[in-house]
Amino acid sequence: MNVHTADAATVEEGLAIQEAQAVLDSESATAVAMQDTLLTPRFYTTDFDELDAIDVTPVRKDWDQLIEEMKADPNKGHFKKDENWDHVDWDGMDPELRKEFIDFLISSCTAEFSGCVLYKEMKRRGKNQDITELFQLMARDEARHAGFINDALREAGIAVNLGFLTQKKKYTHFRPKFIYYATYLSEKIGYARYITIYRHLEAHPDKRFHPIFKWFREWCNDEFRHGEAFALLMKTDPKLTSGINVWWIKFFLTAVYATMYVRDHQRPAFHKALDVDTDWYGQEVFRKTSELSKQVFPITLDIDHPRWMKGLKALQVASVQVDRAKKAGGVGGKLSQWVGSARAAWAFAMLFTIPAKKHQVPVKTRLEPVY
Ligand SMILES: [Fe+2]
Ligand SMILES: [Fe+2]
């Protein structure tokens, strides 16, 4: 058996290695990962038989090429601390930054692992060879990603107990089409987030306060490939991206972008340390994600519309109110929580009703990571 998740050739091997390390895992980090709110990463389950019934014949050529690329495994061995991993002074780190950065790592680890669990389950339940092969390869990557973040957390004396999460975290059921929209977007936005930070730190290396950011380029290429796979899956059935489903696409685009905006604004010290303006970062990531999603979605959100930023800011203020009210408790807290939730719903409606931009989806789906 390999000794590190980065060298694991399969998801099973990667998870076994992490299981063996679980003795070191801390309760508090796992408790954070267990949280299920509108903003925290969730675990998903779906109708696996319906997913298994997909026929990839209409996209066969692109499909085989993508699978070959993934099988070649360009990132095998990459997600491992090596001589480029600088010493991290956790004790000397500003306490606010330390708190937010740990929260960032835990939430990223949970999101990576959420993909791993879903993909692994699909591989286990499926009979369709195209589908099980793809999901096995993607689960392999996500297990490595989650394992690597746990390596970073372990240096701070904490780690997320992934075995415990698999068994105890609540699973949200989504119909396969919602899994496609949500997962496609989370893969592509993941790519856009990682590459935007990577390029920013390439230009400003003095702001790189932790070595994990050096790994982001190869990392985001994995996410890019996963997104490509979901784009091809959606291309097999034109119904998925037309008619009423265009409204669902708009809903998921709005929800995914808005969640990212609110989440990132909860970490001011983290973004200050990176010297990244959170509003700029959000818009930059939305722009890249929108550009990419044109490969399969017939609409993109109008993120330059005057109501866009206003709506996001209103949503963020409302989410702060809800958070404070929850902590305050009592009748006053409950009341304030309701008002906050109503404000959040109104802000979301403000965003959702911005007219979308329509465009033609290209015949050729496949893209390359160019950012
Ligand atoms: Fe990942
Ligand atoms: Fe991924």
TrEMBL record:
<dbReference type="GO" id="GO:0036070">
    <property type="term" value="P:light-independent bacteriochlorophyll biosynthetic process"/>
</dbReference>
<dbReference type="InterPro" id="IPR003251">
    <property type="entry name" value="Rr_diiron-bd_dom"/>
</dbReference>
<dbReference type="Pfam" id="PF02915">
    <property type="entry name" value="Rubrerythrin"/>
</dbReference>
<comment type="pathway">
    <text>Porphyrin-containing compound metabolism; bacteriochlorophyll biosynthesis (light-independent).</text>
</comment>
<dbReference type="GO" id="GO:0005506">
    <property type="term" value="F:iron ion binding"/>
</dbReference>
<protein>
    <recommendedName>
        <fullName>Aerobic magnesium-protoporphyrin IX monomethyl ester [oxidative] cyclase</fullName>
        <ecNumber>1.14.13.81</ecNumber>
    </recommendedName>
</protein>
<dbReference type="InterPro" id="IPR009078">
    <property type="entry name" value="Ferritin-like_SF"/>
</dbReference>
<comment type="function">
    <text>Catalyzes the formation of the isocyclic ring in chlorophyll biosynthesis. Mediates the cyclase reaction, which results in the formation of divinylprotochlorophyllide (Pchlide) characteristic of all chlorophylls from magnesium-protoporphyrin IX 13-monomethyl ester (MgPMME).</text>
</comment>
<keyword id="KW-0408">Iron</keyword>
<comment type="similarity">
    <text>Belongs to the AcsF family.</text>
</comment>
<keyword id="KW-0149">Chlorophyll biosynthesis</keyword>
<keyword id="KW-0602">Photosynthesis</keyword>
<dbReference type="InterPro" id="IPR008434">
    <property type="entry name" value="AcsF"/>
</dbReference>
<keyword id="KW-0479">Metal-binding</keyword>
<keyword id="KW-0560">Oxidoreductase</keyword>
<dbReference type="GO" id="GO:0015979">
    <property type="term" value="P:photosynthesis"/>
</dbReference>
<comment type="pathway">
    <text>Porphyrin-containing compound metabolism; chlorophyll biosynthesis.</text>
</comment>
<keyword id="KW-0077">Bacteriochlorophyll biosynthesis</keyword>
<dbReference type="GO" id="GO:0048529">
    <property type="term" value="F:magnesium-protoporphyrin IX monomethyl ester (oxidative) cyclase activity"/>
</dbReference>
<feature type="domain" description="Rubrerythrin diiron-binding">
    <location>
        <begin position="103"/>
        <end position="233"/>
    </location>
</feature>
<keyword id="KW-0521">NADP</keyword>
